[in-house]
Structures are given as C-alpha cells and as structure tokens.
Predict the 3D structure of the following.
Amino acid sequence: MGEASKTVEKLRQEESRQLERASIAVTGLRSMLEGFLASCDIDKAKKMFSCNHSRAMEIIAQYNPDLHKINDRDDKKIENGPDYEVCKLTDASQRRINQISSHFMFANPIKLTLQNNIKETGELADSFKIFKKFLKEHYFDERLYEAREITGSETECAKIYSLITDEDGKSEVVCQIKCNSRGDKLYPMFNQYGKMVAFAVGYFLRDDEFKNEEHFDVYTKNHIWEFRKTKVSGLDKWELIQKKGNPFKKIPVIYYNHEEDWIGAQNRIDRLEWVASKNGDINEYFGDPFLVISPDVADERLAGAKEVGKVVLVEKDGKFEFCAPPDCGDMIQNEKDSLNAGIERDTNTPDWTYKNIMGLGTLSSKAMRQINISGYVKRDRLANKCYNELINRELNLVKAILINYVYADKNDIKTCINKLELGFSYTDPFVGSLDDNSQEIAQLRGANAMSIHTAVEVNYYVEDKEAEENRIWEEIARLENIKAEATAKAAKSKESNTPKTDE
C-alpha cells in the first residue's frame, strides 16, 4: 500500500472513530436508555453510548515500550548456524513527554479560593474548611494528577465517586479511577449540546469459583444500575444485580478525554528506535577491531572468526594489520539529535535532559518559566480545552455530595455549603526559593498594597498557609499586648514620679 493510500485509510479510520464518539440527538434519550436497562438488553444499551476503547488500546501500545513495533524485528538468519539476535532498542519518549506535561499541570496542587463577597467570605469560612477537608480526605490533588497522567497516555479515563458499605454497615464515599489499562471499558453518553446524559463502565470481577465475571454499571442523575453476565442454558445473558437511587443527585463521574501527549510525534519516535537498533547491530558487527592476517603468519593461539577479537584469514599477499570500519557515528548522532529535537518541538515538551539542565546554571523561577515557555503553552491549551471545565464540574459534584448525602440532615451546614462560590487557579510547577518573591512581598506590605492573607498565599516558602496566617495574627496580638502593657507601665511610673502640689 502506497503512502497516499495509507493516509486515506487513516482518515477513514479517524472518521469512523468520530462517528463512534458522536453524540446522539434524540428526544427522551434517558427514557430510551432506561427502557433497555429495565429489560436487561445491555447489547442495545451499549450502542447508545460512545466508546473509545480501541483507540485507547492503540495509544497504550505506543506508551508501553514492551509493545513497540521495534520488538517485532525478525532475527537474522545465519546459514549453517544459529540465528543472529538483532538489537531491539525501545525508546520511552512517550512516557517522558507524558510525565513532563503532567508535572506542568499538577505537580503542585491547584489553589482553591472563595469568590463570595467580603461579608459572605467570613460567614462561610467554616463551610469552606469542611469542603477542603472532604477533598483532602479523598485525595483530590493526588487523583487529579493521576487522572491527568492516565488521560495523556491513554486519551481517556474516568473518576467515579461511589457510596460503599462495609461489613459493619458503615457507609462512606470513595473515589476511584477507571481506565482501559486496568481492564475497564468506558462508555460516556452526551446529548447534542455536549451535556452528559449517562455514563457506563464495563469491567471483570472474580466470582465465587474464581472465574472472571463480566459486569456493566450505568450511572444516571437519578439511578445507578448494576448488571452482570451469566450463563443460562449455555448462553450468555445479562441479569440485573441491583437498581438503586443516586444519593448524590448528580452523575458521580468526571470523564477526562483528550489526545495523547505525543500526538504527531509517533513516526519520529519509531524512527529513533529503528536508528538506535540498527546502530546497535553495526556495533555488534564492527565494534571490535578485525585483525587481518595471511595463513603464513596465522597462529592457532589467535581467536577464531566467531570469538571475541575477530580474525580474517587472507589467502594471498601475507598481511598482519588491523582493519577499522568506516566511521559513520556523526551521521547517526546527527539524525538522533534531529529526531529528538523534532519530538520535543512537535509536542511542546521542554528539554529536561541532564546535559541541558547542567548547562543552564542556577536560575530563578522567573528564568525557568521563560526557558520552559513551550510547557506552559501546552498546559494552558489543555486547561482551556479540557481541565477548567472538568475541575469546575468536580467541585460542583463535591458540593452535591456534601449537601445531598454527607450533611443531608444538617440544614444549616447544607445552606452554607450551597452558598459557596468556588474558584481555582493552577500553581506554578517551579516553586521558587524564599528570595524569589520575598522582596516584592515586603515592598507591597510596607506600602499597604497587600493584605497579610495575600502575602502568605503568594509566599512560596510557606507550606501551611492557614496555620502561618494564624501565627502571624497571634504574634501581632502578643506584640500589641506587650506594647499596651509597656505604655501602661510607663504612664503609671510617670504618675508616681510627678511631685504633688498643695492646693
């Protein structure tokens, strides 16, 4: 197949994938789905969802070096001898690109802020603490980083909040990541306006006989359906395990979906592996010097042709000299450098190799941001395209969980949580030293152009912002008390030393 035909085929495959992912413009979409679920007709229900599983598995194969094409190289056939095992050198550029991109977005936790007016901010401080405590208990920042890394290496994953009950009858909310590399299949359903109507996940569990049992769970705003596939008269049949109300009143799923981090660079990575592997073969062939001799000077003490220290016997014109292969190292290295530069350029990935970092010397955070501008470009693009919306949706979902389940019987807390107007911002991946912004903070505080709260928030040196601010106010109060006591003591001393006059 020619290059043009391959390109056309790729375009057709992409068009087919887009049709598979297309939203369904149907009135009463949820009602139609629940009809199929009620009759346990899961095969028809699945057709209503989009599924990106085949594409995700292709990307996973690119991400995992053990599954790269270079591993399929055939060994070289040797006549009258064992096959020569060719070099199969994989390259983990995909992993490096993914990890750097994830580091830029969520190496440091996002910063949550209250957007309410000043009066409400004071009233809602305790509710805001409750909200942040829930996020911390459910590893919000860690799960966000994990979801970003998985999505960049698989193109999709889902974060699901579930209510589980232990053996003692105690219920709790848990958060877990579902993805293709862990054996899950994700089925999102969106209407023509891009609003999620339902979400389903397929997976396998071990049954009582330790056999794999296929499961299919469906989440809607009002209900959660759980199915499993069983054998009835030798035929596969889906059965309903349970249908229960959704206690959160929102679809408890955050579905992440965007292109792989190394999109557009796969061909270069394949070529880099091929060049490195061929170069390895050349080194195997010619890396050791050949000793060229004629039979009249040959000695049985010399190594044979297949031993370390190769020997070539020359029939005529006796010789005894070393033969060095032609040096093509510069050409190979130049191509490797060109491929690596192209990969980093096409994927907006900064060069964080040891050689490059050592050549930079000691830089401030501002300088680091400037030389890594490509990483910020990629971060901002993904934030605007995907993560801003999803983070806001998750914050609203957590509010719904707190209101409708955790504090469902505490109206005063529910009312305050419902009033929370939350905002967030991304923090810089390069946390600076104390000298980076301390001078600016001191100048702004001295000019009364910055509050103590803001000064603590932007100070990179402080880890626990809230505790630090409390300590500052305690120190101010202590100094004020000392000052007041000193003033009172001085006044009392002055009064006692003033001579009394007779009237």
Observations:
- The longest strand covers residues 196-206.
- The two ends are 121 Å apart (CA to CA).
- DSSP finds 17 helices and 13 strands in the chain.
